[in-house]
Structure formats: structure tokens, C-alpha cells
Amino acid sequence: MGAFRILCFGSGSSGNCFYFQNDEGAFLIDAGVGISKMRKYFAMYDIVPQSISGVFLTHDHIDHVRCACSFAKRAGIPIYATESVWQGMDINPVIRTKIPIENRRIIQKNMPMDFLGCRLTAFDVPHDSSDNVGYYICYKNIRLVHVTDDGSMTDEIQSYIAQANCLTIESNYDEDMLRNGAYPTYLKTRIFGTNGHLSNREAAETIYRHYKHLSHVWLCHISANNNTPQKALDEVVGLLRKKGVAEQDFPVLTPLNRTEPTGFFDL
After folding, report:
1. Domain 4-260 class in CATH
2. At how many degrees (to 10) do helices 200-210 and 229-242 cross?
């Protein structure tokens, strides 16, 4: 089997970017980390920007698209997103520099596309953005689902996870920390809502539902104010133990860093 590597450059409201590499090349999911940091991280891991063949966006919030235009303009990299995401980016005043038309590619949900020996399928994920997708990535015997900024676990998302052996899933907030924290009521309501973010409890319940066929799980988009990596991890481990799952049957569980690279994972 050819090597398949994942590197998270950051996951959270400060910026999201995931790097995927196989024997045929590399691509990103989201480009929300600042370009200066990305240059630093590329140097750290000996990555040449021009070696990236594409950037796949999940949605049009700035923490997912911040440096996408730089990749398009400076490295000539194509950027992939749904038509609704492109429309949202064009009218979003926070995104001041728009991605050139010649670098734009439109993807369709639930329509698999072949890319660098992988098969990628975008699927709907509920969030309060113009549109939002997760990605189902197949490469040889690796089947990875990537879900972030997810307000609720739908049947469609569950159906993709049911096919996976690796999972990146949002574990954004601890319910008690959010409920009792300093956020204003409107923001708490937004995060708790079905188009907001996924709680530790909801992530843990999803992982328990699918743990038998998952070898690796990464917990992403962990809140700085309403969560900790340890709380996110403890919620999953606690539920698996409560349900009687033997620890040797746990998937490898890794909370991802919010503002710095977590390091390569080789699958």
C-alpha cells in the first residue's frame, strides 16, 4: 500500500487547514490559517507550496478560507468549492481579496471525483454558512471522513461515517462550560443550535456508534473558551468505557491543536 499522510496545521476559530499527501501528490482541505504562518509551517515540514495540487473548501467562513486567495494567486493552485460557497465568498465583506475566476472549480455534493489517486465525495453538513460540506476520501484501503463545523449529526453524515475506517470529527464544546460561560445568550444559542457546532457529547456518541470499524479518530475544532482537549478526549473515553468497550478496541484518539501543527499521521 502506498503511504497516505495527514497533517493538521490548525483546527479552530483561529484557522483551519489540513494537508493530505499520498504517492501521487498533496492537497488541502480548507486554507484558513494566515499565509505567514503557512509559510513557516511549510518550511518546518519541507513542503513546497507548488507541490499542492488543490485546495478543497468546506465553507465560506474566514477561518476556513483566509489564505485560499494567496494559494490561488501566488502558486496557481485550483480551489474547489460548491457553487453556494463561491457565492457566499463573493458577497462576504470580510473576504476582501477574491479568488480569481480562473482558479475556481465547482464541486457537486454526493458526486465522487477522482483526484491524485483518491476519490473525494463532498456531502452536506449543517452549519450557519452559505453552504458547508464534509469530505469522504478513499485512497486504496483508507476510507476517511472529514467533518467540521457541524451543527448536528444527520443521517447522511452517519451514512458516510459508516463506510469509513478513519474519522476527523468536530468536538467543539463542553456543554456545561458553554452553558455556564461568559458568552452572550445569542452566541450560546447559535453554538447549541442544529446549524452551530458539535458538542463533546455528540461527538462521543457518534464515535461509539462507529468505533468497531474506526482505526483512527481526530477530534477537531476544539473551542478555546468552552472546551479543552482533555475534556474532549475524556468524553469519548468515558462513554466507550461506560458502554463496556475494552480499551484495546478503542480507535486511536487524538485531539488536534487549535493554533499550531499537530504533526504528521502516517496511515
Report:
1. alpha beta
2. 40
